[in-house]
């Protein structure tokens, strides 16, 4: 285990499975105490917390629907209260709604924007009251914000593309406070929502330069780097961890 994040406290939204779970575990492995939010799967969230505690780190689990701005703010406040500090915020929770343009409802639009755009903004807004110099805000986007090769992604891609502008603007605003803000865009990643052996996996893998899916740990490694001291001069950046999907 690394000690690059020793003494740090982190909040990871949507940390019960997939990329979020991998990020939570990796930050703990590098020394951080971690609070993770989840929407429904209590058992999975508790399992991630147990992995973190087994490393000798503190872990807190809280239920929060990222579509509810009050719940997002409460999660930030609780993380700072539980740990007595907050150094790292990872906006990972996301809504993945696909469909033909003419079939998408206004409710689906509002839900997607609420979770994928409003929640990271609200969490960042709440967190800056606690983040010290050297604080980190890292948001998980998507490769489809830069390259959309299948139909049905108009709503999801729109929401994820908004994060690049948010990241740049927050990076500029918070730079004088030595708080960095960065965006990580994963490519095809082996999760329950998009398994590496699913029915479309071969076609999706073929769109990458490397020819295969990422493991969630690959995304988590990049997040951990951006959260650490060696990334102190990186802000407002979009980092594609996509196996060459967007080249």
UniProtKB/TrEMBL annotation:
Where are the membrane-spanning stretches?
none
Signal peptide (from-to): none
UniProt key word Oxidoreductase: yes
Occurrences of domain Ketoreductase (ranges): 8-207
The answer to keyword Oxidoreductase applying to this record is yes
Annotated keywords: Oxidoreductase
- Say which family it is in: Belongs to the short-chain dehydrogenases/reductases (SDR) family.
**Name of the protein in question:** 3-oxoacyl-ACP reductase
The species is Winogradskya humida
Recall the taxonomic lineage recorded for the source organism: Bacteria, Bacillati, Actinomycetota, Actinomycetes, Micromonosporales
Q: Which gene encodes it?
A: fabG_3
């Amino acid at each position: 285990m690394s000690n690059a994040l020793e003494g740090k406290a982190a909040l990871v939204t949507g940390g019960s499975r997939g990329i979020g779970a991998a990020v939570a575990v990796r930050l703990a492995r590098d020394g951080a105490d971690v609070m993770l939010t989840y929407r429904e799967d209590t058992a999975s969230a508790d399992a991630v917390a147990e992995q973190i505690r087994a490393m000798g780190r503190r872990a807190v689990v809280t239920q929060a629907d990222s579509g509810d701005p009050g719940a997002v703010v409460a999660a930030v406040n609780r993380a700072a209260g539980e740990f007595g500090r907050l150094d790292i915020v990872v906006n990972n929770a996301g809504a993945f709604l696909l469909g033909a343009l003419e079939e998408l409802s206004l409710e689906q639009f509002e839900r997607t924007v609420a979770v994928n755009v409003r929640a990271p903004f609200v969490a960042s807004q709440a967190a800056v009251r606690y983040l010290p110099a050297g604080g980190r805000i890292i948001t998980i986007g998507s490769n489809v914000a830069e390259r959309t090769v299948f139909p049905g992604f108009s709503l999801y891609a729109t929401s994820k593309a908004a994060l690049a502008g948010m990241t740049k603007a927050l990076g500029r605003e918070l730079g004088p406070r030595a708080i960095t803000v960065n965006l990580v865009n994963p490519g095809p990643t082996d999760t329950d929502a998009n398994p590496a052996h699913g029915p479309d996996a071969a076609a999706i893998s073929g769109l990458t330069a490397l020819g295969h899916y990422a493991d969630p740990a690959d995304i988590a490694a990049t997040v951990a780097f951006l959260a650490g001291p060696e990334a102190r001069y990186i802000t407002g950046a979009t980092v594609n961890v996509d196996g060459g999907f967007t080249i």
